[in-house]
Amino acid sequence: MNLKVLVIISSLFIFLGCSDTDNTKAFKIAVKNNTNAQPLSPFVVLSHNEDYHLFKVGMPASIELEHLAEGGDHHPLVVSKTSNNNIYNTFFKSEEIPPGGTESIILSSINHNHKYLSIASMLVNTNDAFIGETGLNISSLNVGESIRINAPVWDAGTEANSELAATIPGPVSSGEGFNAIRNDKNQVVIHPGVISNHDGLTYSALDVNLRFLNPGAVIFITRIK
Fold first, then answer.
1. How far is CA 70 from CA 105, 115, 137, 155, in A?
2. Hey, which bits of 74-115 come out as E strands?
3. How many C-alpha atoms does 203 have within 13 Å on its Cβ side?
4. CA–CA dist 163, 179 (Å, integer)
5. What is the C-alpha separation between 139 and 136, in angstroms, rounded?
6. What is the 8-class DSSP label of residue 41?
7. Residue 169: which of 66, 89, 61 has the closest Cα?
8. The pLDDT value given to residue 109
9. Cβ neighbours around 12 below 10 Å, total
10. So what's the pLDDT on residue 16?
11. If the chain, 225 residues long, is cut into consecutive pieces of 10 residues, what is the mean pLDDT of each piece?
């Protein structure tokens, strides 16, 4: 075999070996807890197409989102890709985000056709409040570029905002998390906020420090490859 043939074959192997890498992107997702005293549950990120919506304002929350919003449990959303062809992949953290803290995760091997992300996390000292963004288009980001999203606090509408200790799963009371019975308006809306036991709701398990303003979190998305 002559040198020219060897060069051609070697070049072919190099080309084949790079094809997967050349067709993927990577992103760093950082979520900063913007609240005064509300821990955020470990967040989840979904990579999906334009037909998937983590939620729609004014519409009922999915059962998967209800699990997260009421109990901080992201597992049903993580495994939802196995039953929903519009979801390409899911990523998640294992650590809560303390007030003022930031957690980040690397999304590797994001195909060029996977243009959209959705992100969610629960404010754990509430009934069913969550921060969430859906349908974030990342297709135009170049390497090194970032976008910042001020994420509001949503009310999943699946559980009444009673603020009772028995219904708050966070460390303030360690009450019940997910409950399949929906006893609220059954639509996702902007959260009206915490009343607390300092402002007339005497039976509330929440004190004034657990109130929050929007944005409840700040999300940074950076393309790193």
1. 23, 29, 27, 10
2. 87-92, 102-111
3. 8
4. 15
5. 9
6. P
7. 66
8. 81
9. 10
10. 40
11. 42 40 85 98 97 98 98 98 95 97 94 91 98 97 97 98 97 94 97 95 96 98 97
Q: Rounded to the nearest 5°, which phi and psi values hold at 180?
A: -65, -20
* Residue in this structure with the two tokens 């062809």, named with its chain if needed: 85
Burial environment of residue 75 by CB neighbours within 10 A (0 to 12, 13 to 18, 19 or more): middle
Q: How many C-alpha atoms does 27 have within 13 Å on its Cβ side?
A: 28
Both tokens assigned to 217 = 């979190």
pTM as predicted: 0.88
Residues shown for the chain: 225
Rounded-to-10 torsion of CA 130, 102, 169, 70: 20
pLDDT of residue 78: 98
* Distant-in-sequence contacts of 85-91, Cβ < 8 A, 24+ apart: 86/48, 86/49, 86/51, 86/52, 87/46, 87/47, 87/48, 87/52, 88/47, 88/48, 88/49, 88/114, 89/46, 89/47, 89/114, 90/44, 90/45, 90/46, 90/47, 91/29, 91/44, 91/45, 91/46, 91/47
Closest by CA position to 34, among listed 222, 221, 220, 212: 212
Both tokens assigned to 157: 């509408």
Please give the single-letter amino acid code of residue 135.
G
Non-local (6+) Cβ contacts of 100 within 8 A are 32, 33, 34
